[in-house]
Amino acid sequence: MSNTVHEDGPFLLSLSDFEVSIPSEIRKYLEAQYLPKYNGDPNKASKHVGRILERMKIPPATTTCRLNHNNANKSELIEKINQVLKLQTYTVKDEVKQIFRVVPNDSFDDVVDVVANDEIKSTETLYKSSMPPASNGEKSTRKKWPNQKVIICDTFCGEAVLRGADVFVKGVLCADKGIHKGDIVAVYANIISNNNLKQNSSSGGSKSIPRGMDAENYTGTCVFLGMGEMMCSRSEIFGQESGLAIEMMNGLISNHGEITTAKACIPLPPLNSQILSGKMVMQNLPSILVGAALDANPNQVIADLCSAPGGKTSHVASIIRNQGIIVAFDKSRKKVVTMKSFFQEQGATCVTPIALDSTKCLLSSDGNYERKGVEEILRDATVSEEDGLKNIEGFFSESFDRIILDPPCSALGLRPKLSINFRKLKELSRHANYATRFVPNAVELLKSGGVLTYSTCTINSDENEKMVKFILDNYPCMKLVPISYDIGQCGLQGVGLTDEQRGMVRRFDSTHELDTMGFFVAKFIKQ
Question: Which amino acid positions bind S-adenosyl-L-methionine, per UniProt (predicted)?
């Protein structure tokens, strides 16, 4: 049985049987956006959204690693990645094999892909299993749980595990008693909400589960992620603030005489090694397109208006080899402090991170401010004694040659995702309304002839194609132009753009053979 249910809990789900919970009114709203694609056929539109939700719970099979030109060259990066990957092995008939390999990326010269080898990719996973096979090949004899010891992590940690991460102590909610370092354990993720099963308060999220609870007392819903080896004891997990708890197994195991992977999905490489620190960034392929499409050149002045966590900003710094000025905005001071450390690690010396709301950053030369250029404003700014950030009130119109606008969005394209945080359609609508607030200053700050990229990590057309139409309708100076990279698909039909305009934007759909996250990119030139 792939789905193990007991009246009094726990509810053990396989990743196959688990469905990402989405409110029906939001699902219907998204389905309506796909109707024109299927000539008004509601069944086909519904199936398409269903496929998106099915893909949402698993990560893309390819890990894209973007080179940081400021700290490494491509051959050095490949050598360092292989140095990390050689530790990831499995044994078949006494032959030791590597799990992962490095391959060129088809679209970008500064990107390499890491994929599982063909044997791993063609091997059955534990995707349809709600518990691991017993070591003796027999069914579990332990009530409710598998024979192996069990760890239950929170939803956020579970998503990270599906992306290839190991389990760290802060992410563990519950554990069996008597767990010791070196034990092989079954790893589950607590599910905050699931429409398929009746749930009690224990499954309401990590806040309703006392951290450190015995797994035998857990009565919520959890999804099986795979097998791992304990790196510390149970008491150490709940007795320390940081550290590695479980190293997930990426190799093959015997399942009733059949060989399967030790995970519920194709294993991904753990590339958070210090060996690679500063030399590369693991970045989703569509997100890499944003920096590439910007067409940034050395000695230009560039702004990323919603920069955190800084991946796109650091990409542009790499492209221009630190020869220019980049201002990285975010209104959250805490996020900006974190970004500052990230940029230092990346050697992105041309980037100045500032804690500033980009919807309120436009200075008027008619008021109390003497007009200055970006370089002069940055040079004259005072520095906070508390965190070392520059104190900047804003910038003047037409100050930037290039602007990235990637506003906060509904994030319905992210993968893997085990829960959706909003519950009502009006919450989804707020994201599109909020995005419009960033546009006036983005247009005003951009120089004539300058380039602006607009991007989101959502599939919602209100935040994508309709935002492009909003910009074109309200700002005649902004011209939509094609993106010169042949990846992704054209925009959706019937949501405000002409066929010509749809062909200029790039929409990424997780159901497409490219197997990416859901994403959207548009490019404008200010006339």
Answer: 306-312, 330, 357, 406
